[in-house]
Batch of 3 targets.
Target 1
Amino acid sequence: MNRYESVDGLDVTVDSNVLRLTLNDPERRNALTDTSVAGFIRSLETAATDDSLRAILLTSTGKDFCSGFDIVARNARAETDERPRTGSIQRRLPTQANRLIPLLLEIQLPVVCAIRGWAVGIGAQLALAADFTVAAVDSVFWYPFLRRGFTPDSASTWLLPRTVGMARARELLMLDRKFSGIEAVEWGIAHTTAESEKVEVVADDLVARLAGGPTVALGLTKRLLNSASEQDLYQHLTTEAYAMELSSRSPDFREGLRAFIDRRSPTFEGR
């Protein structure tokens, strides 16, 4: 039975050992909806315990990556439905945008994101939460929350200052400054740039490299990097020691050691 299901606005496929999540609503510039976010979350939750997977790719159809969340459609529904209780947004977010971003950060699989065109709001946050983002040189990132009259979500006020610094985070969030794929690389939001027509090729090559790596050690390294700022040095050294203990018991560690002795490139199986 297929463990992964596509939903409206999101194509979910498994290609060999790579989970491919493709935003697919080009008429709305791939804006996320309640349905696509729920499908996104289900796929990541399933992938977190799927030992057949070794990497995840986030990509899109059409000219743009993601124009943010489709609040227009939600408001249109609200006008015809009974007005929700006070606090409905606060209750809903932990199961939607505020669940999606932590999943991308916590999942012990490398995540690659391919950006063409616009990456707006939560679309920009998907790129920031990925481990590696390939951005088109002419792509445009934008956090227009305050321009729409509401505060940022999807961990924007947590991730951005840690990545670009507080001064620039204020500029991006409070002055809603647009920035390019080239700037995204310079500021540490993206990994590399490519011409628009080559973004998927570069992302696919990167995913293939990561999928061929020592999956257990990669996943533990990702957790170490993401937890480092929340621990002091000695707490983190303890965490590193536990990660070393786990990774050194993996078959991929034994393969890496044999390859070193044999003076050849290792062939990792993700175990």
Target 2
Amino acid sequence: MDKNRVSKKVTTTILSMSLLTVMAGAAIAPALGIIKAHFSEAPAMLVQFIVSMPALLIIITNLFFLPLSRVMRTRAIATTGLLLYVVAGAGCFFVDNIHVLLLMRAALGASVGLIMPLSTGLLAYYFPPEEQARLMGLSAAMNQMGGVVATLLAGFLATIAWNYAFLVYLLGLIALVMVWLWLPDEQLGSANKRGIPFQPRQLLKFHPSVTGMLLLMMIFFIFPTNFAVLASQQLGLSAELITIIMVGLDVVAFFVDLAFGGVMHQCRQGVKYFAPLFFFLGYAAYLFPSVLMIALGSAFIGIANGVGVPYLNTIASIKGGKNSATTVMPLLSAALYLGQFISPIIVTPFSHIVFGENDLTGPYKVGVLLSILFFVQVYLTRHFQSLPPANKQSQSE
């Protein structure tokens, strides 16, 4: 078979997995109100765990990805992850007990913990560094598209009944068929003999990207956890308009991701500062609430997320080389979901202590401060470093 055709099929298969990873929590977020009403007797925290539970299990599963990759080949890992994704995700349709539902959501998190390192790490394994910026942009774009599709589809399904929203996870069957047909069967773990990826040496080597991803996700998740309150209480926006603005952010990020390869080529050294800069502008705009300013701020945050994620994945994959799937990508995946999980735990109390509980813009002021911290982190860890040449494959440690 023609090499280009094989590459396109492999790329499409890997990107199909990227489409699914964001859906672990985002797919159910629009239906959470309806789910909460159905489980009205359950503690509110248990209902909130329906969204956050997958993130915890993704982090835990990533801890064991390298040992697992030594005993299972890529197709087996992907197949196991995708089968568990469909069964645990769509299986919630048949569950009417909050505790069983949380167990299913935990299993869904474990499935994404298997899929996500492959969805980015295999791009570094199969393709040379000069192609990785474009491919990481496409991967992030598929992630954003997954968020848009899942949000709209799950919201529509939830209008039928609360449990119908979980049927959105049947989309994993498409990626499962593609994996069976086209994903090459590699033994990734055999290429790396240095133990689990979370050892101090690996953290030292990749700490700029890992810390950057943690900060980026902490800053970004200030938006989805606070935006609806600010927009409805301060501006009186309807739920429909709020949804449009939130989906619009994902659309902006999607197109930025598509263009990332060109952006990286044109602004190879300056692109490192784009994410903290646009986060700063976005949250600063929210401090002057009006429809125009929050729409503009949301667009800036979309740009920051659209540039930041593929940039961190690209430079990490270049540094990690062919071993990225078993070294730095599980680290980045863990940092990404850890940032999502701890963002409200840190931002909300800090906002209440510093700016007062009645200041609705307090979380966005924290966003401005964290954006400055992110800028400083980038400067201290990357300002005096140049990216590896685009035409030369880096060797992992």
Target 3
Amino acid sequence: MDYIANTISNLASQSAITTMSVGNVIMIVVACVFLYLAIAKGFEPLLLVPISFGMLLVNIYPDIMAENGLLHYFYKLDEWAILPSLIFMGVGAMTDFGPLIANPKSFWLGAAAQFGIFTAYFGAIAFGFNDRAAASISIIGGADGPTSIFLASKLGQTDILGPIAVAAYSYMSLVPVIQPPIMKLLTTQKERAIKMEQLRPVSKLEKILFPIIVTIVVSLILPTTAPLIGMLMLGNLFRECGVVRQLTETASNALMYIVVILLGTSVGATTSAEAFLNSTTLKIVALGLIAFMFGTAAGVLLGKLMCVLTKGKINPLIGSAGVSAVPMAARVSQKVGAETDPTNFLLMHAMGPNVAGVIGTAVVAGTFMAVFGIV
């Protein structure tokens, strides 16, 4: 009988139920809501499913993120900025930079969308964060999860890396929900119905030279951006040069999805109740939303100005794609435009600002690192 009693006692003491707090229960519910949004509503499932499951795991079994826990080793790859850089290589291998090359004016729209980053930076300072924490939080406004993780790691803000990463990826996933109301509020029906001229064909030589030239120019000016810009452009060079098909397929498929699994689950596992349910996290989430909204609005407003200057040749909706969520933001521009006129095709035009936004956010991150003397 003593053996049976001891066995039952040991099993009971090892059960997670006996150690689970109210906060853990809340985070498990949040994880289930995220899983529902990803699976039932299709809100960027490739990101939300692993993030949500990591959130679920750590709030049931906290030791999974302890020194010898499985996800601890995944998370070290985030801290060392390895996974964000590899994500950029995959994005480059999957993305056609042709629309940006064909319409260089798109760079201005991508730059305008970075306005949200600086809004959040000064907002974070006002909220009491130090300058490095404010810089790390502000990058959420670019809707770029890998860059947010990269900068927070480089600036030594690992204590708030989890909330920053979750906020960034959450807003990336919610692009189709957050952006359309802002876009419609700032544009007229006539502007949303503008049809843009077909982009000029881009030669293979241009597509090969573009990643090489961008890498040289940006890395010479801001060497700290080389891990991100370099990997982004390397992936794109794989795609465009035409002689490394196997590398292109690996970077854009197998490697990309492996990295997403590692990064997503480890990011989700940073959201233990103790680390996530506090006022600091709420401030970060609020600042991230403000940054994202301001970035979207700035892109649309510059699009409106360019529409006036070009006498109606630019649809302001493509300005919202200046945030870095590739290709989600471009798809939202297409969707909102098609709601006004189903024959309007804006996707390729919106890809220009979208790609410019990725480059722009990486450049802003490199600028912050240079300002703080990080090499």
